[in-house]
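From the methods appendix. Each design record in this collection lists the discretized structure first, followed by the designed amino acid sequence. Records were kept in a plain field format so they could be parsed without special tools. The example shown here is representative of the layout used throughout.

RECORD:
C-ALPHA CELLS (264 positions):
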C-alpha cells in the first residue's frame, strides 16, 4: 500500500506490504523505493516490508537542505505512524549512511542491520572534492548528463550490456528527480560524519554485503568495516554496486538466512 507522511510541510512517500516482523529496505543515491519491487516479493509472506522514498527521490518532496540525520528522523516518523517498535534495516549505499545515522539516534529500534554495498565511514577528502565538483557540474549542465554517466557505472559492464532496459529505466527516472534534491543529497554525503564507533558498539546483529567489483564503494572501505565487528556476517559477491539486481536470488537468500536468526 502506497502511503505518505507530512514532515515539516513536505511529503515523504513510502509503501508497506505484508505482515509480521518489519524489514525496512532503503534505497541509495539517485534511486527510489521502486528498485525493491521485485526483490521484496519473497519476504512478503512472513514479513511486513516498508520501502520509503528519501527526500528528493521517487515520490517524496525535495528539500534544498537535508542531512543523514534528518533522513533518519524521516524513517523514525514513519515508524511512529506505523506503530513499529523494531525493524531489520537494510540500507543500500547512501541508504546505509542513513541507516548509520538511524543507528546513532534510535539503536533500540534495530533488530538487525544490513549495510548493502555501504559502510559507516565519512568520505575521504578526495571523494568530498569530487562531490563538490559534481554539484558545480549539475548547477551548470543539469542533472541529466550526470545521471546518464553515473548509473551505468553502478553495474558490471556485462550486466549492463545484457540488461539495457533496466539501466534505461533507472536513468529515465533519475533524470526527473529535482535538481535541488540531488544536490542536497550530495551535500549531505559530503557533510556526514564518521560513524565507525557507532557500528563498532551497536548492540544488534550485523550483515555486510560487499561487491567484489564495486567502484562506488572502495574495496578498502568494505574491508575496513569488517575489522570493526568480527561478529558480523560478511558476504563478498562477484558483483558491482547493485547486488539486488546483479545477484537477486543470492542476496535474497542471504537476507532470508540472516532474518531466520534474528530476535524480532
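DESIGN:
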Amino acid at each position: 500500500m502506497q502511503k505518505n507522511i507530512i514532515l515539516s510541510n513536505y511529503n515523504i512517500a513510502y509503501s508497506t506490504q505484508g505482515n509480521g516482523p518489519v524489514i525496512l529496505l532503503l534505497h541509495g543515491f539517485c534511486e527510489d523505493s521502486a528498485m525493491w519491487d521485485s526483490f521484496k516479493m519473497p519476504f512478503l509472506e512472513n514479513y511486513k516490508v516498508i520501502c520509503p522514498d528519501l527526500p528528493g527521490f521517487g515520490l517524496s518532496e525535495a528539500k534544498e537542505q537535508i542531512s543523514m540525520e534528518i533522513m533518519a528522523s524521516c524513517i523514525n516518523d514513519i515508524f511512529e505512524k506505523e506503530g513499529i517498535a523494531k525493524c531489520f534495516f537494510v540500507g543500500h549505499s547512501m541508504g546505509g549512511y542513513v541507516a548509520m545515522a538511524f543507528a546513532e539516534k534510535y539503536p533500540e529500534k534495530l533488530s538487525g542491520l544490513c549495510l548493502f554495498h555501504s559502510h559507516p565511514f565519512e568520505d575521504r577528502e578526495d571523494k568530498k572534492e569530487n562531490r563538490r565538483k559534481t554539484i558545480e557540474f549539475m548547477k551548470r549542465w543539469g542533472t541529466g548528463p550526470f545521471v546518464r554517466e553515473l548509473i551505468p557505472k553502478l553495474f558490471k559492464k556485462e550486466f549492463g550490456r545484457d540488461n539495457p532496459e533496466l539501466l534505461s529505466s533507472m536513468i529515465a527516472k533519475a533524470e526527473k528527480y529535482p535538481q535541488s534534491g540531488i544536490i542536497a543529497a550530495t551535500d549531505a554525503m559530503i557533510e556526514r560524519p564518521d560513524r565507525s564507533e557507532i557500528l563498532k558498539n551497536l548492540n544488534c546483529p550485523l550483515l555486510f554485503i560487499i561487491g567484489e567489483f564495486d567502484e562506488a564503494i572502495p574495496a578498502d572501505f568494505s574491508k575496513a568495516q569488517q575489522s570493526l565487528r568480527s561478529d558480523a556476517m560478511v558476504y563478498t559477491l562477484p558483483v558491482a554496486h547493485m547486488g539486488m539486481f546483479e545477484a537477486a536470488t543470492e542476496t535474497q537468500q542471504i537476507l532470508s538466512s540472516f532474518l531466520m536468526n534474528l530476535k524480532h
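APPENDIX NOTE: The domain at 2-122+193-260 is CATH 3.40.50.1820 (Rossmann fold).
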